[in-house]
Specification:
Blueprint (H helix, E strand, L loop, with lengths): L5 H9 L2 H18 L1 H10 L4 H6 L8 H4 L2 H16 L1 H13 L15 H11 L32 E5 L8 E5 L31 E6 L5 E6 L10 E3 L1
Antiparallel strand pairs: 1-2, 3-4, 4-5
């Protein structure tokens, strides 16, 4: 069936190449006006190759005010890693941070499954290909955890995957955390492996309580949970 492209041709002929370029320039300036840091980066590095731009990540400017607490941060990171990945990895990361204090904070805390974070991690690792540094072994990421479990940019609540064969289907979500907690922030979410605390179930069946008095008399009192005791329930022996 033939496709009518007359409207497309008319739209293309409505603007000359110079007019299209001017419109793109205006849109770009409007974006940079709202995002001045992005505009500054694009003006300084917009013509750089991505690999050359990524190599600038390795140019670390130390901040004396923050360096004073660097051992404390490294100690906390090492402790957390040792409990999860073992002492070998923890010691390697601690040594790398001491000699090369470079981390990525781009990721939202979630399984590394969304293109946002996969791409950023690939870009951050580009300089590792030919960088000769003895202590540079790990790509360290301090992920941002002040997002909801249902956040779309990563889906911390579960796993994202494409349906059908070869990923040709729509994006699907497989939740792991319960629905009632989907709006909770990641850093305050409950441990999924922890057993939920349940209040004890009330005993509804009748039971007997034994009371003694100072004169040696014993009373059996028939009671029910959450019900007031009735004097008629007492039976003297």
């Amino acid at each position: 069936m033939p496709v009518d492209t007359s409207s497309i041709d008319n739209a293309q002929s409505a603007f000359s190449p110079s007019e299209i370029s001017a419109r793109i320039h205006n849109i770009r300036e409007l974006i940079w006006r709202r995002r001045p840091i992005l505009g500054d980066i694009m003006r300084r590095h917009g013509s750089d190759w991505l690999y050359d731009y990524a190599r600038d990540f390795m140019d670390i400017n130390k901040i004396p005010r923050l360096s004073a607490r660097q051992p404390q941060l490294i100690g906390v990171a090492r402790e957390l890693l040792a409990a999860r990945l073992g002492d070998t990895v923890a010691d390697g990361v601690a040594e790398q941070l001491a000699h090369f204090p470079l981390v990525s904070t781009a990721d939202h805390h979630s399984p590394i499954q969304h293109p946002f974070w996969v791409n950023s991690n690939i870009i951050s690792s580009l300089p590792y290909a030919d960088w000769k540094q003895e202590h540079l072994k790990y790509l360290i990421t301090f992920s941002f955890a002040a997002v909801s479990l249902n956040n779309s940019s990563g889906y911390p609540r579960g796993v994202l995957f494409h349906g059908k064969a070869n990923g040709e289907g729509p994006m699907l979500r497989f939740p792991i955390m319960p629905d009632r907690e989907k709006m909770a922030t990641v850093y305050s979410a409950k441990n999924i492996l922890a057993s939920p605390k349940r209040s004890p179930r009330p005993v509804s069946r009748p039971r007997l309580r034994i009371l003694t008095t100072g004169c040696g008399k014993i009373f059996f009192i028939r009671t029910k949970t959450n019900q007031p005791r009735s004097p008629r329930a007492r039976r003297r022996i």
